[in-house]
Amino acid sequence: EQTAKPQKITTNGMTVDLKSYAANGKGETMLDLAGFVPKQANVSLHSDMKMESMGQSIAMTLDMAMTMRAR
Fold first, then answer.
1. pTM for this one?
2. Residue 5 φ/ψ, nearest 5 degrees
3. How do residues 33-70 score in pLDDT, each as one tens digit?
Protein backbone atom coordinates (compact mmCIF):
# COMPACT_ATOMS: atom_id res chain seq x y z
CA GLU A 1 0.00 0.00 0.00
CA GLN A 2 1.23 3.47 -0.85
CA THR A 3 -0.30 6.90 -0.22
CA ALA A 4 0.78 10.52 -0.53
CA LYS A 5 -0.54 13.62 1.18
CA PRO A 6 -1.49 16.68 -0.90
CA GLN A 7 1.69 18.46 -2.00
CA LYS A 8 3.26 20.58 -4.71
CA ILE A 9 5.56 18.82 -7.17
CA THR A 10 7.89 20.89 -9.35
CA THR A 11 9.82 19.37 -12.25
CA ASN A 12 11.25 20.94 -15.39
CA GLY A 13 9.92 24.36 -14.34
CA MET A 14 6.31 23.18 -14.01
CA THR A 15 4.43 22.90 -10.71
CA VAL A 16 1.63 20.40 -10.17
CA ASP A 17 -0.62 20.22 -7.12
CA LEU A 18 -1.02 16.59 -6.13
CA LYS A 19 -4.45 16.40 -4.49
CA SER A 20 -4.47 12.69 -3.63
CA TYR A 21 -2.62 9.46 -4.37
CA ALA A 22 -3.37 5.92 -3.22
CA ALA A 23 -2.11 2.62 -4.58
CA ASN A 24 -2.14 -1.02 -3.58
CA GLY A 25 -1.13 -4.28 -5.14
CA LYS A 26 -0.19 -7.86 -4.57
CA GLY A 27 2.17 -10.42 -5.98
CA GLU A 28 2.67 -14.15 -5.99
CA THR A 29 5.64 -16.26 -7.05
CA MET A 30 5.57 -19.99 -7.78
CA LEU A 31 8.89 -21.73 -7.20
CA ASP A 32 10.25 -25.06 -8.35
CA LEU A 33 13.14 -25.68 -5.99
CA ALA A 34 14.73 -28.03 -8.54
CA GLY A 35 14.91 -25.20 -11.08
CA PHE A 36 16.99 -22.04 -11.41
CA VAL A 37 14.24 -19.43 -11.96
CA PRO A 38 10.67 -19.06 -10.65
CA LYS A 39 8.09 -21.03 -12.66
CA GLN A 40 5.59 -18.18 -12.59
CA ALA A 41 5.08 -14.74 -11.04
CA ASN A 42 1.84 -12.75 -10.88
CA VAL A 43 1.59 -9.05 -10.02
CA SER A 44 -1.48 -6.80 -9.80
CA LEU A 45 -1.59 -3.06 -9.09
CA HIS A 46 -4.33 -0.46 -8.66
CA SER A 47 -3.67 3.27 -8.22
CA ASP A 48 -5.75 6.46 -8.10
CA MET A 49 -4.29 9.96 -8.43
CA LYS A 50 -5.79 13.46 -8.64
CA MET A 51 -3.75 16.50 -9.74
CA GLU A 52 -4.21 20.15 -10.75
CA SER A 53 -1.98 22.46 -12.75
CA MET A 54 -2.49 25.69 -14.67
CA GLY A 55 -6.25 25.65 -13.98
CA GLN A 56 -6.69 22.09 -15.25
CA SER A 57 -7.66 19.05 -13.15
CA ILE A 58 -7.00 15.42 -13.97
CA ALA A 59 -7.95 12.17 -12.26
CA MET A 60 -6.03 9.06 -13.27
CA THR A 61 -6.71 5.43 -12.45
CA LEU A 62 -4.33 2.61 -13.31
CA ASP A 63 -5.17 -1.09 -13.14
CA MET A 64 -2.40 -3.47 -14.17
CA ALA A 65 -2.08 -7.24 -14.10
CA MET A 66 1.08 -9.00 -15.21
CA THR A 67 2.03 -12.68 -15.39
CA MET A 68 5.52 -13.96 -16.14
CA ARG A 69 6.20 -17.63 -16.91
CA ALA A 70 9.48 -19.47 -17.34
CA ARG A 71 9.96 -21.40 -20.55
1. 0.75
2. -75, 160
3. 888 888 999 999 999 999 999 999 999 999 999 999 98
* Terminal CA-CA length for the chain: 31
Q: Give the Cα separation of 12 and 42 in Å (integer).
A: 35
Distances in Å between the Cα of 41 and the Cα atoms of 1, 2, 71 are 19, 21, 13
Any residues with CB less than 8 A from the CB of 38 and at least 6 apart, and which? 29, 30, 31, 32, 68, 70
Is 57 in contact with 49 (CB distance < 8 Å)?
Answer: no
